Structure formats: C-alpha cells, structure tokens
C-alpha cells in the first residue's frame, strides 16, 4: 500500500486547512459577541449607595429611592431606578422591597386611610404588616422581600433582594 499523497489530494488538504482557518477566524468574534453577556461577572455581592443617612432613620418606614448605575441587560447598559422602604428596629436597619407579592404593584406605607401602621397595595387592597408579612385574607401570598443592607460612611447601601427573614 502506497502512502504517497497525490498532487490533487495535497491541494485539497491545503485548501481545506486554509478554508477552515479563515472560517474559524471569522466565526470566533461572532461567537464571542453572542455569548459575551454570559461571560460577564454578575456582581451579586454589589451594594448600591443611597442618599439615606442611617442616623436619620426611625421606626417609621421611609421611602428611599436609589439608582443602579450602568445596569447591564445583555448588551445594553442603562441606569435603573429602584425604591425601598427602610426603617430601624432597635439597632438593625431593615429595607423592604416595595414589590407586591400578588401581581407586582408597588406597596406604600400607610397607603390607605383605614390601615395605619401597615403596608398597603392599592391594586387589589393587599396588606402587609410592618415587617413585610402578608396579612391573611388579602391577595398577596407571601411576605415582601428584603434588601441586603450595609452602612458605609453613615449612609445606607442596599444590595440584592432576598426572601424575607423577619417573618
Ligand atoms: S398586586 Fe398588590 S394586591 Fe394585587
């Protein structure tokens, strides 16, 4: 059996090699671009500064608005506004998500004349206790989420939301 390579086979192998190299050189950037968001670090432990001074907090929840700068959504970066209800319980700072656990409306502290000292969701009269516990017999099926909290230079910084640990 001869192991000689004919001129035709040599040219064919060479063209396939060069063609394959060129194809991979063109495809690699496209593949890299397509999967780029997946490769980015998620920044899960990230805390966002807020304008709220920790010393100014009382036992009455106050609305704290903050902005997440350059939030990356796939290929797009934008600033995202967010809100928390923040108060003190002893020395502990508690920050609750305002997102209703029924259908996602925004809950307000004492948002209804009849329900003092509660969070109230105007969409379907959802009610929550101060610690975020949903009041049985109202539409929400679970407690409000909590934000992770830390204090930096006297200001409240908020992290990701976690399931409520107070109820
Ligand atoms: S969305 Fe809040 S009670 Fe329905």
From TrEMBL:
InterPro entries in alphabetical order: Rieske_2Fe-2S, Rieske_2Fe-2S_sf, Rieske_Fe-S_prot, TAT_signal
User: Which keywords appear in this protein's UniProt record, sorted alphabetically?
Assistant: 2Fe-2S, Disulfide bond, Electron transport, Iron, Iron-sulfur, Membrane, Metal-binding, Oxidoreductase, Transmembrane, Transmembrane helix, Transport
Signal peptide residues on this chain, from the entry's feature table: none
Q: Name one GO molecular function term.
A: metal ion binding
> Where does the Rieske domain lie?
84-158
Question: From which domain of life does this come?
Answer: Bacteria
Which stretches are transmembrane?
A: 12-31
| Subunit (UniProt) | The main subunits of the menaquinol:cytochrome c complex are a Rieske-type iron-sulfur protein (QcrA), a cytochrome b (QcrB) and a cytochrome c (QcrC).
What PANTHER family does this protein's entry cite?
Answer: CYTOCHROME B-C1 COMPLEX SUBUNIT RIESKE, MITOCHONDRIAL
Say what the protein does.
Component of the menaquinol:cytochrome c reductase complex. The Rieske protein is a high potential 2Fe-2S protein.
Please report which protein family the annotation says this sequence is part of: Belongs to the Rieske iron-sulfur protein family.
Would you tell me the protein name for this molecule? Answer: Menaquinol:cytochrome c reductase iron-sulfur subunit
Protein's organism? Sporosarcina luteola
**Which gene is annotated as encoding this protein in its UniProt record?**
qcrA
């Amino acid at each position: 059996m001869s192991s000689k390579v004919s001129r035709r086979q040599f040219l064919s192998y060479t063209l396939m090699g060069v063609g394959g190299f060129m194809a991979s050189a063109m495809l690699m950037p496209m593949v890299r671009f397509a999967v780029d968001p997946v490769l980015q670090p998620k920044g899960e432990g990230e805390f966002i500064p807020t304008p709220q001074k920790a010393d100014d907090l009382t036992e009455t929840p106050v609305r704290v608005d903050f902005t997440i700068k350059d939030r990356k959504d796939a290929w797009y970066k934008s600033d995202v506004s967010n809100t928390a209800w923040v108060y003190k319980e002893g020395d502990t700072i508690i920050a609750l998500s305002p997102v209703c656990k029924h259908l996602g409306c925004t809950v307000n502290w004492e948002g209804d004349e009849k329900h003092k000292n509660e969070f109230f969701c105007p969409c379907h009269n959802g009610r929550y206790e101060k610690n975020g516990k949903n009041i049985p017999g109202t539409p929400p099926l679970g407690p409000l989420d909590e934000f992770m909290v830390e204090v930096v230079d006297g200001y409240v910084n908020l992290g990701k939301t976690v399931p409520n640990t107070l109820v």
